[in-house]
Amino acid sequence: MGEDPLPGFGTRAVHSGGGHETPAGDFRPSVFPIYAASAFYYPTQADLDAVFAGEKPGFVYTRNANPTVAALERAVADLEGGSAAVAFGSGMAAVHAALLALELGPGDRLLVARDLYGATRDLLLTFFAPMGVGVRFADLTDLENAEGLLAADRPKGLFFEAVTNPVLRVLDVPALTGLGHKYGAKVVVDATFTTPYLYRPLAAGVDLVVHSATKYLAGHGDVMGGVVVTGPDLEPALRTTLRLVGSVLGPFEAWLILRGIRTLHLRLERHCTNAARVADWLATHPKISRVYYPGRSDHPDHAVARKLFGSHFGGMVAFELKNGTRDRTMRFIDGLRLCRPAPTLGDIFTEVLYPPISSHRYLGPEERKRLGITDGLVRMSVGIEDPEDIIADLEQALANA
Question: Of 271, 305, 303, which Cα lies nearest the Cα of 168?
C-alpha cells in the first residue's frame, strides 16, 4: 500500500502544532496548551541528564526550548516544507540569527538586494559591516548583474526578500538561488510578505527562510515574533544563537501566533482578492500617479510573480500620490478613517504606512529616491474588511488631500 496523501495546506494550518496530549490523564485539550513554565524537571537526575544530553526527548529550560514554542516551530516547518524551524522574539531577531548561521567573519562578503526593509539594512551596516563583513547592495532583479557580482565577489551569503519592502519588486527566487549556489553562497530569503500560503522558497533550494511572524502568520496585531525555517545542517547554529543570545519567543506569544496560523489560508485568500481590487481601483484614480501590485500586468515583475505565485499575489499594495509632497501625503494618511496609519502590516485590518518617516526614515533623501521611495509613496497592507469600505475610505481621504 502507498503512503497516505499529505493533507492540504488549509487542513494542515487548522491542525498546526499537533500533539495536543497533556502529561497526565486521558483527556486532550482542543488546542495546544500554553506551557507557562521557565523550567521543567523529571523524576530522577538521570532523566534530567539524559534530556540535557539530547539522549531523551524533553524540555529543561524555556530559554533552550518550550513545548508551546516547539508546537509553533513544528507548524511553520510543516507549512514551509522544512525539516526544522526555530522561533525568536521578533522578526529582526530571526534575521540576525539567520545571518549568524552563515558564520560571517572579517573578510567574508554578503550580497544583498538593494530593495530591503530599512531595519534589516541598518542591522547589516550597524553590526555586520563593522565586524569586517563586506556588505554589497545590488539590484537583484537583474539576473545578469547578480551573476556578475556573485562571480566577482564569491560571497558567503546571498540575502533578499521574496517581495521587497516597500515597492513590491518580486525576485526570481529559483534563479537567484541557483546562481547563489553556483558561486558557493548560502541563500537566505525573507518570505514575510508571501507566507507559505503563496510561496515556499525551500522548494527552490533556499537554505534559510525568514518570517516576521508578527505579520501575516499571527495576523491580528497582538503579538511579536520571528521564525527561521531550514534543514538539518543549519538548525544547530540557529539553536545555539537562541540559547546563548537569549532572543527567545515566550510561550504566550507562541500560542497567539499558532492561533493565527490556523486561519492563515482563509485570511490570505481575502487579503489577496481585496488587494487586487484596491490596486485596480487606485490605478483609475486621477490623484494617483503609480500603483505597485505584482498581480497587475503593468508591474515590472508580473511575469515572475505569475511563475512563483500562480493566481494570488499577496495583500500588499504601494502607490504614489500625483505631485505627492511630504505634507500632502501625510495629510492624506491623516484623513483616513477606516484604514489604520500603523507602522506594521499583515493584520486583519487595513494599515497604511509612510516609508520616509517610518520603515526607511534613516536613509538619506537621495538613497530613498534611488530605491523608488518618493515623498508621495504610500505602502498599504490591505485587510480583510469589505473591499467597498476600504475603497470608500481611500476615496474620501484622497478628495481632501
Answer: 305
Whole-Å CA distances, 300 to 8, 141, 170, 201: 32, 10, 9, 21
Residue 190 CA to residue 44 CA, distance in Å, equals: 43
Q: Are residues 210 and 73 in the same domain?
A: yes
Q: Is residue 280 part of a domain?
A: yes
CA 340 to the chain's CA centroid: 20
In a domain, 290, yes or no: yes
Q: Which cell is 313 given?
A: 499575489
Q: What is the per-residue DSSP string for 54-112?
A: TSS---SBTTT--HHHHHHHHHHHHHHT-SEEEEESSHHHHHHHHHHTTT--TT-EEEE
Tens of pLDDT, residues 298-339: 999 999 999 999 999 999 999 999 999 999 999 999 999 999
Which residues belong to the active site?
Answer: 63, 117, 190, 215
What is the grid cell recorded at 173? 527566487
> Domain of 351: which CATH number?
3.90.1150.10
Q: Give the dihedral of Cα atoms 42, 48, 52, 58; nearest 10 deg.
A: -30
| Other C-beta atoms lying within 10 Å of the C-beta of residue 61 | 13
247 and 171 together in one domain = yes
Q: Give the count of domains, the chain.
A: 2
Please indicate, yes or no, whether residues 20 and 151 belong to a single structural domain of this protein: yes
Closest-CA residue to 308 (of 182, 207, 383, 197)? 197
Q: What is the pLDDT of residues 10-29, one digit of tens each?
A: 999 998 876 555 555 667 88
Domain that holds residue 268: 264-399
